[in-house]
Amino acid sequence: MEKVKCAVLGATGVVGQNFLKLLVDHPYFELTTVCASDARKGQKLGGAKEHVPGGIPAVFSELILEAMNVNVLVSRGVQIVFSALPASTAAGIERDAAKAGIKVFSNASAYRMHPQVPILIPEINYPHLDLVKNQQKETDGFIVTNANCTTTGLVLGLAPFLSLNIKKLVVASYQAVSGAGYPGLSIFDISNNVIPYIAGEEPKVLDECAKICGQVDGAEIVPVDWDIYAHCVRVQTIIGHLISVHIELDEKIDRNDVKNLVEQFSTPEILAGLPTAPDRPVIFTEAPDRPQPRYDIEAGTPERAKGMAAVIGRLEVRDNVIRFITLSNNLVRGAAGGSVLNAELAFRRNMI
Ligand SMILES: NC(=O)c1ccc[n+]([C@@H]2O[C@H](COP(=O)([O-])OP(=O)(O)OC[C@H]3O[C@@H](n4cnc5c(N)ncnc54)[C@H](OP(=O)(O)O)[C@@H]3O)[C@@H](O)[C@H]2O)c1
């Protein structure tokens, strides 16, 4: 099988380097092109500062960083791009790439709330991928986004409960510093500290969660109408966003029924066997002190799906209220791994 030629935009960044790791020996995709800021044009990728354990994979270290230009992507025969760019930069190049017929899988927020662009977390909303057919009718475009890293962890934790009648959701996050990219926060600000505000994060959680959990209606998505409240807080961990979740239903529920829902939640058939799809996307623990970033950020099997599963613990159920703590890997599940899984699904559905 001939592999699909792909590029990583923002390959030197924190998310970009997680893409590199996931694309080593990928069965469907072949990384041929890497781009970063203009200042690095012509440099070897291997010279960039390491942001992942093990550094830039040796197999890609000789790749030369290209200018961020759609003509370069087209001339190199790139069929899909994985975007790990800041939103302001992503807006132009993602639009240009999509117009040129290149399929875009983006981590940036630039197009997430566009009515014809899915925010795809396929365990929850794989039918939303069909929205791109409407983009193609109007503009030839193909942009698929994944959510903000906090939203991804939240909705994955909610996935087992989406058949219930949810009225209200109250969440508080404990977010790792890697969520802010490199160099991120100054040690003066975050060391020995907790910062109860992350600019722009709370509205993203509210809007993206409602869209992801909504239903396709014709050409658009009708968001869920839950009452949602979020506090987003930065803590001193390096990787892994922990979220405290409080769900209110319209009727009482029993703890055993809730536990069964979590334990029985499985990957939809359409994702089964995809290289980066975790066998179990949500893992439940009764251990009183888990999940913890230190021990649980690599949850997920098989090997390629390490870091793709959310871990749920501290489950409490009282009357119509379900409470739990969920943890997910913001760089893998919440970023690069999420995009790669979305592209694998599009590949399986012959959309690439
Ligand atoms: N970190 C997370 O947990 C996370 C999770 C989900 C989504 N995201 C989103 O993913 C994107 C990347 O995040 P990150 O954390 O990887 O950021 P980052 O570490 O700051 O990396 C940004 C990348 O974009 C490149 N870049 C910056 N400005 C550019 C420009 N004007 N032209 C071309 N390239 C430019 C950088 O190249 P140089 O190295 O040459 O500067 C670098 O490769 C952001 O949109 C972010 O919101 C991040």
Describe this structure in words.
With 352 residues, the protein is an alpha/beta fold. It folds into two domains: 4-148 and 336-348, NAD(P)-binding Rossmann-like Domain (Rossmann fold); 149-329, Dihydrodipicolinate Reductase, domain 2, CATH 3.30.360. The protein contains eleven helices and 14 strands. Strand 13 (310-318) and strand 14 (321-328) form a beta hairpin. The mean pLDDT is 96. It binds NADP nicotinamide-adenine-dinucleotide phosphate. NADP nicotinamide-adenine-dinucleotide phosphate (NAP) is lined by residues 10-16, 36-37, 40, 68, 84-87, 89, 107-108, 149, 178-179, 181-182, 330-331, 334-335. Residues 10-16, 36-37, 40, 68, 84-87, 89, 107-108, 149, 178-179, 181-182, 330-331, 334-335 line the site of NADP nicotinamide-adenine-dinucleotide phosphate.
CATH class of the largest domain: Alpha Beta
Strand content: 15-25%
Give me the side-by-side strand order of the main sheet: 3-2-1-4-5-6
The ligands bound in this entry are:
NADP nicotinamide-adenine-dinucleotide phosphate
Structural class: alpha/beta
Summary of the model, kept short:
This protein is an alpha/beta fold and 352 residues long. Helices cover 28% and strands 22% of the residues. The chain has eleven helices and 14 strands.
Give the topology, please:
Elements: E1 4-9, H1 14-23, E2 29-35, E3 65-66, H2 70-75, E4 80-83, H3 87-99, E5 103-106, H4 122-125, H5 131-139, E6 143-145, H6 149-158, E7 166-175, H7 187-190, H8 201-212, E8 215-217, E9 220-222, E10 227-234, E11 241-249, H9 255-264, E12 282-284, H10 293-296, E13 310-318, E14 321-328, H11 332-348
The structure holds NADP nicotinamide-adenine-dinucleotide phosphate.
